[in-house]
Amino acid sequence: MKQGLKIAVIGGGSSYTPELVEGFIRDYGDLPVRELWLVDIEAGLNKLNIVGELAKRMVAASGLPIDIHLTTDRRQAIRGADFVSTQMRIGMLEARVRDETIPLRHGVIGQETTGPGGMMKALRTIPVLLDICKDIKELAPQAWLLNFTNPAGMVTEAIHKYGGVRSIGLCNAPIGLIKLVSARYNTQPERIYAEFAGLNHLHWVTRIEVEGEDKLQELLENREQYAASNVPQHGWDPDFLRSLQALPSYYLKYYYLTDFMLQEQLNSTNKGGTRAEVVKRVEDELFKLYSDPQLKEKPKQLEQRGGAYYSEAAVNLMRSLHNGTNDIQTLNVPNRGTIDFLPDDACIEVNCVVTKNGPLPLPLTKIPQPVKGLMHAVKTYEQLAIEAAVNGDRALALQALAHHPLVPSVSTAKALLTEMLEANRDYLPRFFD
Amino acid sequence: MKQGLKIAVIGGGSSYTPELVEGFIRDYGDLPVRELWLVDIEAGLNKLNIVGELAKRMVAASGLPIDIHLTTDRRQAIRGADFVSTQMRIGMLEARVRDETIPLRHGVIGQETTGPGGMMKALRTIPVLLDICKDIKELAPQAWLLNFTNPAGMVTEAIHKYGGVRSIGLCNAPIGLIKLVSARYNTQPERIYAEFAGLNHLHWVTRIEVEGEDKLQELLENREQYAASNVPQHGWDPDFLRSLQALPSYYLKYYYLTDFMLQEQLNSTNKGGTRAEVVKRVEDELFKLYSDPQLKEKPKQLEQRGGAYYSEAAVNLMRSLHNGTNDIQTLNVPNRGTIDFLPDDACIEVNCVVTKNGPLPLPLTKIPQPVKGLMHAVKTYEQLAIEAAVNGDRALALQALAHHPLVPSVSTAKALLTEMLEANRDYLPRFFD
Amino acid sequence: MKQGLKIAVIGGGSSYTPELVEGFIRDYGDLPVRELWLVDIEAGLNKLNIVGELAKRMVAASGLPIDIHLTTDRRQAIRGADFVSTQMRIGMLEARVRDETIPLRHGVIGQETTGPGGMMKALRTIPVLLDICKDIKELAPQAWLLNFTNPAGMVTEAIHKYGGVRSIGLCNAPIGLIKLVSARYNTQPERIYAEFAGLNHLHWVTRIEVEGEDKLQELLENREQYAASNVPQHGWDPDFLRSLQALPSYYLKYYYLTDFMLQEQLNSTNKGGTRAEVVKRVEDELFKLYSDPQLKEKPKQLEQRGGAYYSEAAVNLMRSLHNGTNDIQTLNVPNRGTIDFLPDDACIEVNCVVTKNGPLPLPLTKIPQPVKGLMHAVKTYEQLAIEAAVNGDRALALQALAHHPLVPSVSTAKALLTEMLEANRDYLPRFFD
Amino acid sequence: MKQGLKIAVIGGGSSYTPELVEGFIRDYGDLPVRELWLVDIEAGLNKLNIVGELAKRMVAASGLPIDIHLTTDRRQAIRGADFVSTQMRIGMLEARVRDETIPLRHGVIGQETTGPGGMMKALRTIPVLLDICKDIKELAPQAWLLNFTNPAGMVTEAIHKYGGVRSIGLCNAPIGLIKLVSARYNTQPERIYAEFAGLNHLHWVTRIEVEGEDKLQELLENREQYAASNVPQHGWDPDFLRSLQALPSYYLKYYYLTDFMLQEQLNSTNKGGTRAEVVKRVEDELFKLYSDPQLKEKPKQLEQRGGAYYSEAAVNLMRSLHNGTNDIQTLNVPNRGTIDFLPDDACIEVNCVVTKNGPLPLPLTKIPQPVKGLMHAVKTYEQLAIEAAVNGDRALALQALAHHPLVPSVSTAKALLTEMLEANRDYLPRFFD
């Protein structure tokens, strides 16, 4: 007889794991986890042990009957799991450094999820996720695969098209926006309703209700606050927002403020610090903290890491799937007519009702007319890149890159592609067989 | 009793007019023109007279019973017309110089139909065309308005949405491609069948049959010929074309080779010659030729002017509409489902069967997957710019420009818009009332 | 300062009203009704007073501060209302008798919501509802109009197209199915999730989960139970249901078992009792009960009246709209892409998330392939009949009837239409001016 | 070296063959047929010889170098063919008698292409056509399969979905309408343009131009002529046509005048003559004529056979495909968005431009709103019946029949299906293995 849930976390040695464990402890009543399997690769064994031991101490302190397993045997972890969650980085931070720096040398935005860097990450990551799907199909065919691995939209779409398992993509950005607005209005996150339209890392928020009152206009108009970094509209031109009638995702700055963002990246790289290098330092500090045998809870410092709320999003989703609560969450799911100009099988990021059988996307009440082309252009690139990743097809990869809105010409695309493929050769067997 | 057709040419003082007259003479059997009214504004009266007298000499030499009328009274010309054709430039070549140079100063492509320059031309032109439509609705409600005025796709779409008259947009590029291919294969243009997919100045040719044989692959692959300027594939990267499986319009170089084209524009401007200035010199020479009272035919030199085949396209279309020949021509027409991801009312440039009741777009047999996003992005910009033009709405104009694929940021868009609107103040009453 | 909600019930003298009052009392905590206005026409004043006095006694017994107002002044009742609900029958039971008997004389199903009878009811009712909308637009523009008036799908669609007010259509059939299944499985209605696809009185249930377990197959297969009238699958051929993979609405028997249902109607009419006449007797008994000054609660007998759960559905919906609870209810709403082959403005009956801004239809997870044509055919008829009602257009009414799946020929349609319009002359001013 | 075309006619012993041969002779200049292979089954060998010898005499009289081959070896006939045409009846006229009489006994229209009879014909015919497709794929992969075999729309759709060959469906009804109108207006068929919208044997004509003038209204209104059987509008109610604004196909009488047509069928059956039996007599007479060794041309009497113009349609289509003339013909082709509410892979009957690569459907300029539901309902039935035929699936066949607009109930559908399957057992191996 089944006594509780089995959960497998691929990339369990991640610095995010304590947040996830904290969530499982907090929500145990609604989500009775019996076994938590943290899986990682050999190269990550040291981190896995550090974070795993912290997890064990946290559970022990809670007094709950949750078994923590640490392993490099992915198949054992997956067998019979109810949920599989993935949070991993193929090629580790070294690959991220390359994703961020090679494009910059060609005068193109260097970012790990957006533009050429994001495409390289997708090419490395998608085949690994599809391998994981093979194991799930065989060993836990009823499991839900919750994918956080970036670029989450593309990876989730690839899984839907080629993985043959039940899967949902998640990002921390939507929950982050909710938290920001709730802080701004000094209310509970549950009292905020925001409607998201678009793709992962490319969404627009077209409705924000705070305690049942529409506050979008107020947020778009509030000029004096644009300088403050702790407000949702930080850094955007108020005239532009007002005529757009939507709040763009932070990642849209790479598209709307391309020249400015590029300059900023060049400046910070010249000062000797890509984002990857900053993250590396933060992680080192976190693992030092985690190693403390006295630590029995998630340290506050983790919240300053970029990925805050990732695990909260994951636990919320598992809880709703498990209980069929039919509540609304912002998720990455196949389009199937929700955005009428995108293909049915395109993954989009929108509000969904989470039923026991999975998420159902809610109809969009508004989609800003000006953004349709950009959204379609990025999705077109994504779909080409997914096919390139699955087939190891250079011609498709060239088409993807040449048609990416941030790439200024076919010749730049060609040069970039050649260099980036070569630099990632070890992680791209489908391209270099 | 009606004894033949009445045709009104708005912008009749254009240097293209002799080609049109030549066409009417050549096709008189199928298209019995009784009255040809050449209309122009006061400022163009001198040119109108020069070109009008040449037209009269051409007709006299032909011995055909066609009456040529020269006038500045547009309403008289339109009254009872069967066809109205427009070929005009609001603000004349001076405005074009500004369209081409202001964007360059902001590091953006400067071109009269593509990008910010094209948008300014649209803002100046659309209200004038809608005024002409008012006259047609009143004075010749059954007339066909054939629109050549650039940006032809946007202007035609504006007419369809707001003009209330029967209208078709035309461009010389499709017929030009046919002529190039027919020369390359040493056969008649009638033996070439090419399928066009896309928008005006933003199309891709996805099928080329020469005498019933598919030659697309051969044209895409023929590497040694890319250097030759008299071939369709001139200047494109063969690897890119082969994986795209389509021949892009010449104008697509502004999108696919942005950095290169921008550099070329900067170089030639520095050498003291925008395209507008080159055209001005060519036109001066043409009008000198036209003034010769001995000249009784279209001079060969006209063919070197960029707009070759414009008039051939026009005469072909009038002939097919008049006779209901159900033949196939490449035209700008409302989408109505032909390209499934674009709105029904978007004007597209595709092959059509020309019935007596107007053109019916043929279904596309192929549309390259990679180009969908770019096509949608440019159409999105076009639709916003049309609304801005009709309403004199700066906020919409900002959205249009900020979302144009060639504009690198919202701040550039804002600066450019401010400067260009100001520079065109005289021609933008809807913006400056 | 607003102290509670104002609710106007048009047709307040209906025998259903006590159920509604009971609901307001039960849910007062979530739905604080301050004023309840019961409106009826002069001819219904006697009933209004009987049912109104019972309502007052029920409220008094509850001790809640709800004011009951009885009036024939519709405008006073609507002014400033938060919710307007309608439950009325234009032409009263006499008109229903005609709706049920005239078609039978032509060999066609005689039913008050389905077929020619339903169309006559729509022709009588739609103009009256649109008049009510005029009052709401003027006097309570923010009010929600909850429409129970049959044929509810057509009436709601007409309101959406021509009424200019916020409106939702409701039916008791979906909630009735849920109650039947919950009784069958001995569980709470809240533990049942059923997915409805289709139109009002023309839906199919494609998923039934009981406490999270899929029971559709079991319900379709359970052959021995088909004879029992208290099960959802009562009377259907089990082979047919199994290959259909959906449970049809009771009303679909008029389409799937036309010959049998027609015979049954003819038999019962011959025995001297149409459905209308039966209902009349039940109503007379109810009002006798209601008149008892000792009665202070809804009598049990009301539940045997066909319309059980109507008021429960209404109170649930008001509560969710008022509180923005984002829960799921089965409602009649504009299609907007949910059923891809029906027009966007077609009203459909599907599960919706009820947000503060109104219902958002959930995507259908399944729609049985075989039923698409029938669904489209009935919706086509409905849309034609709505236009006929709004414009008093006989030609459209003929097209509607001639294309109704239950009408065997154009000549029958013509004869039926002539006779039915004449019989309803008093209620069809748009047809007889 | 190829010296001309090879054509294979499956069912070459048909009485229509002389018309086809006449067409090949007449159009030899545009369609140089070198080999004509007439194929039939053993049971049809006698007819094949009679009609084949007549064909040889016709060719000899023409003096053209066309070789006629008579054979029962289908594969030999197909090998290397340019065109394969099919005109056959699985089960011969005996099966047709059953298709027409069994439904009548259940009170349902008995017709060989419409309703239950048409479904049985489809179940018998589709597997045979798919077998022929296997041969074509192997032996003549570039051939065009022109399908006349009824129900032509369903058979063609099945070939498109499962046959893997290039195929087009043809019917003589559209060309017949053109001839009728040209006779009515005393002009050439080439001067008529009619727009067809719908399915095979279920189309509506929404535009009729005679010498460039719109005559639809005149044809719909002309009341005094409805009695005359040689006009297109014969037998329709003028009020109905006028409000429909379209001329329905003759076959639509089975839907629009169901009660009348049923009575007529019952009467004529009682008088001892189904349509099948009438046809049988006509055929016997034709073959007697064909046997005359003096006959060297198509006899006039053939035109009185129902299928007049079938062969003219076929020869026209082959000629256009061979020469890429881009002319317009009414054909059965996959929908692909032409009728927006039908699936992309549904076969529809519409005007097409016949290019060298096959037909491209023209956009419909009008589709009568009232007919959408009926069109969708019949197409739904067709798609279910195709799947039933391909898979020998009784459950799908039941769904198809139960949802057919002419079948009054599930129980009638079930009884009919059982009886008809049994009666066709010899021709339905997929159902009876």
From TrEMBL, chains A, B, C, D:
It comes from the Bacteria. Gene3D superfamilies: Lactate dehydrogenase/glycoside hydrolase, family 4, C-terminal, NAD(P)-binding Rossmann-like Domain. Keywords: Cobalt, Glycosidase, Hydrolase, Iron, Manganese, Metal-binding, NAD, Nickel. GO terms for molecular function: hydrolase activity, hydrolyzing O-glycosyl compounds; metal ion binding; oxidoreductase activity, acting on the CH-OH group of donors, NAD or NADP as acceptor. GO terms for biological process: carbohydrate metabolic process. Its cofactor is NAD(+). Residues 196-407 form the Glycosyl hydrolase family 4 C-terminal domain. Substrate binds at residues 96, 150. Binds 1 NAD(+) per subunit. Mn(2+) binds at residues 171, 201. Pfam families: Glyco_hydro_4, Glyco_hydro_4C. The record marks 112 as: Increases basicity of active site Tyr. Belongs to the glycosyl hydrolase 4 family. This is Diacetylchitobiose-6-phosphate hydrolase. It comes from Paenibacillus beijingensis.
